[in-house]
């Protein structure tokens, strides 16, 4: 983090640096960091000290029973911790091993699996996907005759495909086949996945495009998607607690946090099921597993590991693929602050009753994963991330400066009032 070194602010800056601590100082310093994160939630990163609030208060405010957090520093998981309950009204606590639905945070995992297949020669980034699709084909129309739907465009949400996301299927509802989802046929509860814009012309977030990737991967490998992802990503990275299986296997159900509606009530049956695996919606994971994934992407990007991807592929994954002037998106990740030391790749996710976020800074070796089991978890995860970002110098922390400025104004005001009264009585 770059901090102002302007002389009048020197004291405030030094104090802020002392407060930020150092992970290498040992467990006690890490515990102090955790405590500051827990009591330092911020609606906005620049809020003054007196606006910081405890995590427990904000969980209650948003009706979120459970939260799990993993924080990365110096390319390692520095700490992971669970808060609250698996289900409102019950006693089982959230732990670092508790499973949450990762929702669209699973998209980069799917993208990494596809890129592994590219490296193995089974897929090509810039080939018409219909050349590899066997069980189903992208319907041709006036847009596809101008440009082709390619894997690169699907992974970067620039293929012109429809269906932003999926609501899943409640327990007891019939599950559609993959082809029924692609064509929007009953019992699918989403529209047909079609091309409605010239591929490559614009960015438009499309979970539907990733379902096409799901079908493509299955057709070229002859293997269900969960097995391919386990072999290409989960096992190499060591994500031992994660699975794309849908429905969730019975032996894992006891480890899973139940989803909750905005009023804090549990979802009937615990959660919705998502056969739209390619969209990432079916991924069950932990913040620690996803943090390990982020660390591997960072190390590949820096040329320090090829366990998951080569450096060239990782750099392509974290390079803008979308047209200039619109949202920065790579091959599976959103991109921010490109070309700066604070460059980071990010993805959030939201299934019915779950909200989470994943953010990693490859130049700094830092990052965080936050998972919640509440439908209103968007606000909570943002406030937690603000607290982590300030504590770990991912943003410029000027809250102490603001506080000292306000205190200075108060002192000046009181001094002026005393002077005025003395002058009036003279």
How would you describe this structure to a colleague?
The chain has 426 residues and is an alpha+beta fold. It folds into two domains: 1-62 and 390-426, no CATH class; 64-375, Beta-lactamase (3-Layer(aba) Sandwich), CATH 3.40.710.10. The protein is 35% helix and 11% strand. It contains 13 helices and eight strands. It has helices spanning 10-20, 27-38, 55-61, 107-119, 151-155, 178-183, 207-221, 225-237, 250-253, 287-301, 311-317, 377-391, 399-425; strands spanning 66-73, 76-84, 100-101, 284-285, 334-336, 344-351, 354-361, 366-372. A six-stranded antiparallel β-sheet has the order 2-1-8-7-6-5, with helices on both faces. Helix 2 (27-38) crosses helix 12, helix 4 packs across helix 8 (225-237) and helix 10 (287-301) packs across helix 11 (311-317).
Structural class based on helices, strands and sheet pairing: alpha+beta
Per CATH, the architecture of the largest domain is 3-Layer(aba) Sandwich
CATH H-level superfamily of the largest domain: DD-peptidase/beta-lactamase superfamily
| Beta content | 5-15%
For the biggest sheet, the summary is: 6 strands, antiparallel
- Taking strands numbered 1, 2, ... along the chain, how are they ordered across the largest sheet? 2-1-8-7-6-5
What's the pLDDT, averaged over the residues?
90
Total domain modules: 2
Distance between the termini: 52 Å
The tally of beta strands, per DSSP, is 8
| Unreliable stretches | 1-23, 397-407
Using the alpha-carbon principal axes, give the shape. globular
- What's the helix-strand series? HHHEEEHHHHHHEHHEEEEHH
Look at the structure and give the CATH class of the largest domain: Alpha Beta
The share of residues in helices is 25-40%
Oligomeric composition of the shown chains: single chain
CATH-defined topology of the largest domain: Beta-lactamase
**Helix tally?**
13
Rg calculated over all Cα atoms: 24 Å
